[in-house]
Write a structure and sequence with these properties.
alpha+beta, Jelly Rolls, ten-stranded mixed β-sheet, five-stranded antiparallel β-sheet
């Protein structure tokens, strides 16, 4: 359903700020569902950021006539939880995320019931006000964060209309004259043609201290990173940005293409308590990954956390044969817990699942993170172009990969215990425990 990409952080960033919640009042009262009163609020909240003119989706879903035209397709995608693109198992692990764009069971039921009832339009005066969505020309974080403090462009690159995968690795100075801490980043492919040929990008700070390191990994379905309050990454004075851009020609030449990196900074001289990093966990590396024809292999690896950590975000990276992935915690006392699990990976949506502040996993020193990744190189996989191929590791989209990008904040023991106490106090407050202290 999705075959083009434009960054739309608005799906989760401005959606909660601008859109009314879907009340489903007719359904709750037992009345008939109508488009303007009951269904349009759901589409505004979860669908229209992508399904509008010039956006990523192949059709617009802004009006009654547009939605009615695709009603049966919508019913199919929604019932199978393929749309909106949110591929986490809804019953395992953490379920509270900052960027959750999934539909509730109630919302899914309303859409299915409305389609089955013949898609009645209802009274247009019942409709909520239209939303003024950002376009693909703008950074989607701007409504929440304002304009970026820095905008750094890759050097121009000519992308041909036809050909094989291409990589462009320019290094560009940041222009910073003093050390600053980063609070958010966003990658913005050029509009309109660049977004169709930009496959993925790695953005790394080149500087003396390794705490800077990788700023973000951008891929289809993702825009960048936003950190918790008091959490950030160091960007040193005189540093440079190393870009690695993977282009994939799609039939339209894009001459002198430039991809933009927006960076939001903390105030001058502000040092966040928690330096954080985007950590790379390679589960099926080069020389190991080997997928036989018509097979469904599983790869697993474990990593010991030498110090306490807070997990900020969870993202799996596959290509076309990727099917599912999970992250489990094995605690020092032997307990095991699934933190997050992807059941139906879709190559067009490399979702970065950002845990809500109150739900970001806090793990003690000695915790083992167990990662699993499974593949489907059979005809059961509708995304598989050639089930009879023997597939190995490679950068091309036709090859495969298998790794995770995990936002990890390292803690000392005092920080871990303090955050744990604060978390427990908030939980006690929410449960109505009169003995709970301040949150």
């Amino acid at each position: 359903m999705m075959n083009r990409y434009m960054p739309l952080l608005a799906v989760w960033m401005i959606g909660a700020a601008l859109l009314p919640g879907s009340g489903l009042s007719a359904q709750e009262s037992g009345g008939d569902l109508t488009f303007h009163r009951d269904i349009l609020p759901i589409f505004q909240q979860n669908c229209q950021a992508c399904h509008q003119a010039g956006a990523i989706a192949p059709m617009e879903l802004m009006t009654y006539d547009q939605v009615r035209r695709y009603g049966r397709m919508i019913r199919n995608r929604v019932s199978e939880r393929l749309m909106p693109p949110w591929h986490l198992n809804p019953h395992l692990g953490v379920q509270d995320f900052k960027n959750d764009r999934s539909l509730t069971d109630q919302e899914i039921g309303a859409i299915l019931s409305w389609v089955d009832a013949g898609m009645p339009e209802g009274d247009p005066t019942d409709a909520p006000p239209p939303v003024d969505w950002p376009t693909g020309e703008d950074f989607q974080s701007t409504p929440m964060l304002g304009e970026p403090d820095l905008i750094i462009y890759t050097k121009p690159f000519d992308v041909p209309a036809e050909g094989n995968d291409l990589w462009w690795r320019p290094r560009v100075p940041t222009g910073l004259t003093q050390d600053r801490y980063v609070r958010a980043t966003e990658v913005l492919p050029s509009f309109p043609d660049g977004r169709g040929v930009t496959h993925h990008m790695l953005v790394t700070a080149v500087q003396e201290q390794s705490v800077g390191g990788l700023l973000t990994e951008w891929a289809l379905g993702k825009t960048g990173e936003i950190y918790q309050e008091g959490t950030g990454k160091l960007l040193e004075a005189g540093s440079e940005i190393q870009f690695e851009t993977h282009y994939y020609p799609n039939g339209t030449a894009v001459p002198q293409d430039r991809v933009a990196l927006g960076i939001w900074l903390y105030p001058e001289d502000y040092v966040p308590e928690f330096p954080t990093r985007l950590r790379f966990f390679n589960i099926a590396p080069e020389g190991v990954l080997a997928i036989e024809p018509n097979s469904k292999p599983i790869y697993q690896r474990q990593f010991v956390m030498q110090n306490p950590v807070r997990i900020q975000s969870f993202q799996a990276h596959f290509h076309l044969r990727g099917k599912g992935a999970s992250m489990e915690a094995i605690y020092p006392d032997g307990r095991t817990e699934v933190i997050s699990q992807i059941d139906d990976f879709q190559f067009n949506w490399h979702n970065n699942y950002i845990y809500a502040d109150h739900a970001a996993p806090l793990l003690p020193a000695g915790t083992v993170l167990k990662f699993s990744m499974w593949y489907d190189n059979t005809t059961d996989n509708p995304n598989n172009p050639h089930p009879g191929d023997f597939v190995t590791w490679g950068d091309r989209a036709a090859d495969e990969m298998g790794h995770f990008w995990i936002g990890v904040t390292d803690l000392n023991q005092e920080q871990y215990e303090r955050l744990l106490r604060e978390r427990e106090a908030v939980t006690d407050d929410a449960s109505g425990d009169p003995s709970a202290g301040p949150g």
